[in-house]
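[Meeting: bench + compute handoff]

Bench side (C.D.) handed over the final construct sequence. Compute side (W.E.) agreed to return the predicted structure before the next meeting so the bench team could plan truncations. Sequence as handed over:
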Amino acid sequence: MLQTLLAERFQVKIHKEKKDFPVYVLLPGKGPLKMKESPPDPDASKDQAKDSTDVAATGSEAGASVNLGHGSSYSFANNRFEATKLTMDQFTSIFERFAGRPIVDMTNLTGQYGFAIEFTPEDYRAMLMRVALSAGAHLPPEAMRLVENNSSGPALSDALQQIGLKLESRKMPLDVLVIDDALKTPSAN
C-alpha cells in the first residue's frame, strides 16, 4: 500500500536487488539443543485466520517485557533474556536489535521454543545501548565508546551456547530496495 502511494504521489520508481552485507548466521551448536519446544496450539489456526495479533509491551529502567500474542512473549531484564513460545524467525528478528546487524536463521528449527539466556552485566548494558541506537536515540560519547568497544557477535555467540545455538559472522546477499527515480514534491491529491 505504501509503495503504491509513493508511486502515485512521487512517481517513485524502485527495483529490488541483492547486495552483500555482513550478517550473523544462527546455527545449531555442537551440543544438544537446550530449549523446550512448546506443543502445538490447537487454537492457533483459528487465531491466525483473524490475521491480527494484539501486541503489548511494558518497560522501565529495569528492562522490557513484550507479549506477542498467541502465548508468545519475551522479557529482557536483569542481564537475562527469557522467551516463551518463540519461533526462530521471531527470535532472530528480536535479536537483530541487540546485534547491530541482520541475523539469518539457518537452524532448520520450525517449532516454538521456551528458553532463557544469561548475559554478563557489561554485555547486557552494551546490548541495551544498541537497542537505543537502533531506535534512533543519541548517546553521549562515553556510551558510544562502550558500544564500539564491545563487539556483540562474540558475546551473543557465547550466550547462545547456553541454549545449544551459535552465531557465525558471514557476508551474505540480502534483498534491498533501490530508488531509481522520484519527484521532490508530491503530486496533488
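W.E. noted at the follow-up: The first strand starts at residue 13 and ends at 28. C.D. will use this when planning the next construct.
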